[in-house]
# Entry
Amino acid sequence: MKKIFEIKDKTLIYDVLDKAEYGTLALCVDNVPYSVPINFVRIEDDIFFHGALSNRKMKMLAQNPKVSFSVVENYALIDSDFSTTEGLACPATQFFKSVSIDGAAVIEESREVKEKVFESLMHKFQPKGGYKPFSDSAYDQALKATAVVKIEIEKCTCKFKFGQHLSDDRFKMIVSALLARGTQIDRETVTLMKEQRGENNGI
# Structure
């Protein structure tokens, strides 16, 4: 990864993780890879997800707990003619934020941890409330039948790609083209482009 794209600020990294509705979990057993999208929640420095006790990912984790996990937050598609007048397709790209994690999966058995994880998941995906707390006995059977997994993070990298590496002329061309197209995501992208270049946020 080019250093100019790398983000090390934990606040920015956690913001991407906390906003993401799902991530992609990658596992491997006997040189056979498997990836699956999962809902998840971050609690402090760990990632948690849940699933059926005997599904494919749980069986694979029992054999190899090493995992990779990734999240992407997409921003504007950059058409090729937004930054070149030569008619080439090569400049076409997409701006984004991404987080990639390598770690080890740990199965959480305690009722207390499971309650905390499910409360956190519900707070993330249903912040309005409207449900019984997970300490309620109504959840006894469901909690016993559900696996909760923690990813203990061993390595975390974050990348923000918003044209930081471009020449001033190409950068200005893209900003102008995005504002001319004028969708909400285009305008949000322009704001982030300027932030990453250390420019005034106003558009």
